[in-house]
Amino acid sequence: MGVLKNNFPKAAAATKNFYVDDYIGGAESDEEALELYKQLSGMFSTCGMSLRKWSSNSEKLLENIPPENRELASSKMFDSEATVKTLGLIWNPTSDKFHFNELKIEENVTKRSMLTTIARVFDPLGSIAPVTIQGKVLVQKAFEERVNWDDEVSGELKEEWLRYKSELTNLPAINFPRYVGVKPAVEIIGYCDASEKAYGACVYVLSEDSNGKPNMHLLCAKTRVAPSKNRQTIPRLELMGAVLLAELMEKVMTAVSIPVSKAKCYTDSMIVLHYLRSNDPARWKTFVANRVALINEIIPHSKWAHVRSASNPADCLSRGCS
Looking at the record's lineage, which domain of life comes first (predicted)? Predict the structure, then answer.
């Protein structure tokens, strides 16, 4: 393995972008993309393997890839309607945007069909987390009714689900850019929030283009339904949201090689900020103390600040929106 790293350094570094046998990556220029392709092909060829089904929005790169190793012919790749399946999402090389698949939705409204529908929404980055959290909350309500798996839920819940289901038919119209320009990143900014129904966190990247103009893009988001058995207070749910944000920030910083010095986290809970700025977390009860220690281990309390609820983008994660 050491020999491969020495001979193919860029390819070796790119192996973290493999998911099972699929590779998703990118480059800042055609030249960089071509060099990465050559190194990846060379490294796998050394191991007796061949990489196939290549897709790219770079014509220069595709010209250097044998036709038999491409996902689509070059003439079709840049057709405005041409799309490529990418780990459960649809990618349009021409617009360089991801789209969602059309969702097959069950007609009946049972606990099983509701759970099946939610499981079919593949959103690895949480781009539509404010939408999916609504469905998860409704599924939780279905479980609280204690109906059998294939029995219809109550009339009120059924009406809520049918309204939600009608919104899911609009998923194919949603798209988001593949490239968000994390290098050179000026700052990685995270927000968290909680309500009695759910809590969530989202991470944005603030960068500058070649002209020094700032750009801010959503990188990812994550939500959790508030536990129904052991009901928690809002301050505790806000703290759980802060834990979720810290863990999400850690994953992002590792993935894009951004140091914690360029991180900033925001919460609209003054209680959470008070917890985090305590010099002795052990003074709190175990529930709070353990979570405060975990957060501070990932993101120092000096990197946390307050944001007004009206300005907190994570608000829609905890409450859901259409």
Answer: Eukaryota
CATH fold label, 180-319: Nucleotidyltransferase; domain 5 (3.30.420)
Domain edges within the chain: 1-82, 111-173, 180-319
Q: Cα–Cα distance between 62 and 82 in angstroms, integer?
A: 15
In terms of pLDDT, which residue wins out, 322 or 287? 287
- Give the whole-angstrom CA distance, residue 129 versus residue 31: 36
- Residues 6 or more apart whose Cβ sits within 8 Å of residue 300: 260
User: Beta 198-208 vs 214-225: how paired, if at all?
Assistant: antiparallel
Distance CA 121, CA 119 (A): 6
Contact 245, 223 (CB under 8 A): no
pLDDT digits (tens, 9 = 90+) for 8-26: 888 888 888 888 778 888 8
